[in-house]
């Protein structure tokens, strides 16, 4: 019997119990798998394999709708909230200390060690990093990246596709080890991606 045949035959017959499947072992080829109905609601069916005339669990199960719903509720507990409030986190007692309210982050209370680092006098600026003294060297300004000082290479403006490709060919070796402009000849000692400064 082919490998395909050994695995497809038992799929046409499923069993109500493990005992019923074991009683029909003569019709389940050795090495093949079949299923029996789960005795509880944790799964729809449990896969077993004929190992030398004895059915042994493979560890695989067909999950039931009840099992799926339980897993969803474990991850996303039902927390009643208004339409304008979206819970972001909840603890074991279903308390929600952090949420979005009308699209803005809100919380029960902030610890004294936490502080707001955004400066509301500059509404178009969003800090991306701040140091221990509250300095913000990198921020978004009207959706664009900005910083206290930028490297002169970044100040030149946007590269065109041709300029970018040319720059990358000068600085990157092909992952196959072929050197740019070397007609595909390989250098076996350079068969990995390498960036030069």
Structure explained in plain terms:
By secondary structure, the chain is an alpha+beta fold. The chain has a three-stranded antiparallel β-sheet with strand order 1-2-3. The two termini are 61 Å apart. The C terminus is likely disordered. It is elongated, with a radius of gyration of 31 Å.
In brief, what are we looking at here?
A hairpin with a 2-residue loop joins strand 8 and strand 9. This protein is elongated.
Structural class given helices, strands, pairing?
alpha+beta
Measure the end-to-end span: 61 Å
Low-confidence sequence ranges? 171-180, 182-197
Name the strands of the widest sheet in spatial order.
1-2-3
Helix content: 10-25%
Rg, Cα atoms, Å: 31 Å
SS elements, strand count? 9
What best-fitting shape do the alpha-carbon axes yield?
elongated
Biggest pleated-sheet summary: 3 strands, antiparallel
Share in β-strands: 15-25%
Keywords: Cell projection, Cilium, Flagellum
Protein name: Flagellar biosynthesis, cell-distal portion of basal-body rod
Organism: Klebsiella pneumoniae
